[in-house]
Amino acid sequence: MRVTVKDILEIVGGKLLSGSESTAIEGFANLRESVKGDLSFFHDPRYDTLLTTTKACAVLVPETWTKFPEGVACIGVADPSRMFETIVEKFGVQPEPFKPGVHATAVIGEDVKMDPAKVRIGPHAVIEDGVEIGDGAEIGAGCFVGRNARIGANSKLFANVSVHTGCLLGERVIIHSSVVIGGDGFGYEFDKGRHRKIRQAGIVQIDNDVEIGAGTMVDRARFGRTWIGEGTKIDNLVQIGHNVVIGKHCIIVAANAIAGSAHIGDYVVIAAQCGVAGHVKIGSQATLAGRCGVTKDLPGGATYLGYPAIPVGEEKRRLASINRLPSLSARVKKLEDKVGE
């Protein structure tokens, strides 16, 4: 790639605030890691120092910015982050175009409903009997799609995804590598001195426009369905237990564990490394800060912190009190010494 600042100005509709239109751009990077020839962006005053020391040759900055590093072409735009994304989408690494066809090494079962001219099945994929695959869907190399599962139109399974028997994926669903959809839920009863497995006879239903990150596991229901609502985005390495219901347009960040039959409302944000106990309910538009432990129902529309999770204001006051304990203990010791004297 080789473009100039002038080319960038035409794409973003910005204004050159400093530097030359002829400056050549050969790559993209953040302010800290940029080298000569890179385009970067600046949108947060907290990174003012990085802007002044960056080695990038050009930087997208807010339209109102007035401090420009020497020798750097600064391009004023309304939203530097979004405009940077636009440029990278145009000149950066491009996704592989959709090429329909069924690879010769793929194993296709009986009664599979799909149009081979409108789907893509990669090498060594296994599609079992009765599967339905919508037009525009992509099944990556080494994927497994179990009996009677359904993959909606324009959905994409990256390499080595497993979708087990009877599970339902909507349209435009994106599943990244090593995800398992519909593995057995973790259900046992202690009976006559041993753990007896409880049959997991339900399914997983994933609605339209859901994206699930690499290494995440979504267990099938004991009965009925484990259900992930429309537009929800799930990060890598998340465990979702049997019969969990997750609402629409939620954000679930990496390394979360959600136990069986938990119910999460719409537009909930769960930060990294949280744990949600089984059978609890989290109301819509709630936010869980990192490493929360949810042990009881939480009303929606609030932010929670700590273990057990409580409203963020209460937890911050509790933590502040804990931090004062050493000095309080020292004061008590002095008072005890005086009383002793």
Characterization of this structure:
The structure is a single chain. The chain is an alpha/beta fold. The protein folds into two domains: 3-91, Udp-n-acetylmuramoylalanyl-d-glutamate--2,6- Diaminopimelate Ligase, Chain: A, domain 1, CATH 3.40.1390; 101-315, Hexapeptide repeat proteins (UDP N-Acetylglucosamine Acyltransferase, domain 1, 3 Solenoid). Helices cover 16% and strands 29% of the residues. Strands 8-10-13-16-19-24-27-30-33-36-38-39 form a twelve-stranded mixed sheet, with helices on one face. A ten-stranded parallel sheet has the order 9-11-14-17-20-25-28-31-34-37, with no helix packed on it. The chain has an eight-stranded parallel sheet with strand order 12-15-18-23-26-29-32-35, with no helix packed on it. Strand 38 and strand 39 (310-311) form a beta hairpin. The chain is flat and about 70 Å long.
Strand content: 25-35%
Inertia-based shape: flat
Helix content: 10-25%
Q: Tally the helices: what do you get?
A: 5
Q: So, CATH architecture of the largest domain?
A: 3 Solenoid
What low-confidence regions span 5 or more consecutive residues with pLDDT below 50? Answer: none
Q: Find the CATH superfamily of the largest domain.
A: Hexapeptide repeat proteins
Distance N to C terminus? 81 Å
User: Structural class of the secondary elements?
Assistant: alpha/beta
| Main sheet strand line-up | 8-10-13-16-19-24-27-30-33-36-38-39
Report the CATH C-level class of the largest domain: Mainly Beta
What's the Cα radius of gyration? 27 Å
- By DSSP, the count of extended strands is 39
Provide the domain count. Answer: 2
